[in-house]
Amino acid sequence: MRKIVPATEENIKLGAKLLAEGKLVAFPTETVYGLGAVFCLESAVARIFEAKRRPFFDPLIVHVASKKDVSYLWQKVPPRVNLLLERFWPGPLTLVLPKKETVPDIVTAGLDTVAVRMPAHPVALKLIEYCGFPVAAPSANLFGHVSPTRAEDVEEDLGDEVDLILDGGITSVGVESTIILFEEEKFFLLRPGGVPVELIEEVIGEKVVTRKNLPARTLAPGMLKTHYAPRVPLYIFEGEAEELKKADFEKGIALLSPRPLSFSGDAVFVLSENGDLREVAFRLFAALRKLERERAEKALAIPVPEVGLGRAIMDRLRKASRGTARVVGGKLVFVEAEK
Ligand code: TXA
Ligand code: MG
Predict the structure, then answer these.
(1) CA-to-CA distance for 19 and 38, rounded, in angstroms?
(2) Average pLDDT of 208-217?
(3) 173 close to ligand 1 (CB < 6 Angstrom)
(4) Contacts of residue 243, Cβ cutoff 8 Å, sequence gap at least 6
């Protein structure tokens, strides 16, 4: 049987049936593709970790098809958290709250909280609804690799492990969900993502607490410094993009730019024609995987401002990068970061 199938009504029903039997089904969400298993079938969830070669200490996000289904997972929904659910669900926002006993330890890596989100993708929502249970799903890539934005990316990483891949085309957001922990009446940012922090702050009427002020035990493995490494060494460019010359981007070095430059070429990837951060996010992971397929030797990324979606984009670029690069005396110099 072919693993990749179009996400037709019939195939979504097949996927739901396989999930209920304890199989692994990859499916599109609006952020990236997920590798799903029914959250309460422990052996199926264990297979997710094996398939991804993911350490068991890295907890999973549980996906629901309706807001009321959080009652199976969370002890309660504080009113201020509810404001966020009302505004951003379905959508790329994950919330972490104290779990119910029904959520197995394997899902949460033994933590007493569980991360939950309601994806804004018709295929994901139908699959979860037809299967009848919330679905635990990490991004459908090998651990440490770039997250998949296309069904083919899932097949490349997990083709032998997954039972079915529902193809819903390219994912529209392109970076993973924003993860917020609510604890002691405060909101903590665990991972910047598809919902800009500024919008969250507008809704809750206060600042979200960011990384440097996080309690150490909440540092989840998704927050490790190197996590999204592409197989091509990537460096973040420091300096004025116009200092770069076309000549630098031949012979194996590629360039990722968030906007058009004064030069172009086969190895220059313009992620957006007008610097639109949504477009940059949407194309970023696909561009990283393309660099791998084309066997670029090295790649250089021009940074974006750290506002709105730019925060998630820079987080992923830093995690994917080996260091920085700059132009010194007309020459490109690469500096490995200490990690
Ligand atoms: O957009 C997304 O969030 C995608 C799609 C498939 O929904 N999923 C995703 O899952 O990115 P994953 O497994 O690649 O990243 C989940 C991260 C973990 O690495 C961890 O950092 C955090 O979520 N996490 C999960 N449960 C947590 C918990 N109880 N406490 C703190 N962090 C948690
Ligand atoms: Mg992931």
Answers:
(1) 6
(2) 72
(3) no
(4) 327
Residue 173 is classified by DSSP as S
Q: Using a pLDDT cut of 90, give the percent of the chain over it.
A: 81
Q: Is the CB of 48 under 6 A from ligand 1?
A: no
In this structure, is the dihedral angle defined by the CA atoms of residues 245, 248, 250 and 255, taken in order, positive or negative?
negative
Backbone phi and psi for residue 80, each to the nearest 5 degrees, phi listed first: -70, -30
User: Tokens representing 152?
Assistant: 């083919």
CA atoms within 13 A on the CB side of 276: 8
pLDDT digits (tens, 9 = 90+) for 46-61: 999 999 999 888 999 9
- pTM exceeding 0.90: yes
Q: What is the DSSP letter of 177?
A: P
Instruction: Write 204-207 long-range contacts (CB < 8 A, 24+).
Output: 204/80, 204/83, 204/84
Cβ < 5 A residues, ion ligand 2: 139
Q: Round to whole Å and give the CA distance between 102 and 9.
A: 30
Six-digit token string for 231: 């197989």
Proximal ligand: closest to the CA of 220: 1
The one-letter code for the residue type at 197 is V
Strand pairing category for 93-98 and 178-183: parallel
Q: CA torsion sign, 195 to 306 to 230 to 219? A: negative
The secondary structure element, H or E, covering residue 181 is: strand 178-183
Cross-strand pairs, 187 = 182
- The alpha carbon of 147 and the centre of ligand 2 are apart by a number of angstroms equal to 6
N- to C-terminal Cα distance for the chain? 43
CA 140 to centroid of ligand 2, rounded, Å: 7
Decide if 234 contacts 317 (C-beta within 8 A): yes
